[in-house]
């Protein structure tokens, strides 16, 4: 197995992992900023106030993007399994 093949597989895996986690992370980031602005405006310094909206956004984005995430993982896994003979043979 060549270094280039391992490097390509690793790059693809990292790209897929980032693509799959991005909707939830971006949603939590936006909700965190909104809650922080709300806390700054109202001067409410409750630390637990940000957890429930973030959890709701993460669960909502997981429900909305679950089919796309499943399709992306399935496609990546299928391509990875199909490419095993070529990678092992060094072609």
UniProtKB/TrEMBL annotation:
Ranges that cross the membrane: 16-39, 51-70
Bilayer topology: Multi-pass membrane protein
GO cellular component: bacterial-type flagellum basal body; plasma membrane
Domain of life of the native organism: Bacteria
Location in or out of the cell: Cell membrane; Bacterial flagellum basal body
Coiled-coil ranges per UniProt: none
Signal peptide residues on this chain, from the entry's feature table: none
The protein's role, per its UniProt record: Role in flagellar biosynthesis.
The family this protein is said to belong to: Belongs to the FliQ/MopD/SpaQ family.
Protein name (Swiss-Prot/TrEMBL): Flagellar biosynthetic protein FliQ
Source organism of the structure: Halobacteriovorax marinus
Organismal lineage: Bacteria, Pseudomonadati, Bdellovibrionota, Bacteriovoracia, Bacteriovoracales
């Amino acid at each position: 197995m060549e270094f280039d093949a391992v490097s390509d597989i690793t790059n693809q895996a990292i790209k897929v992992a980032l693509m799959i986690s991005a909707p939830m992370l971006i949603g939590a980031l936006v909700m965190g900023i909104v809650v922080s602005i709300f806390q700054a405006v109202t001067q409410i310094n409750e630390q637990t106030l940000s957890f429930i909206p973030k959890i709701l956004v993460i669960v909502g984005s997981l429900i909305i993007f679950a089919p796309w995430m499943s399709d992306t993982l399935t496609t990546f896994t299928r391509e990875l399994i199909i490419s095993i003979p070529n990678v092992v043979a060094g072609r």
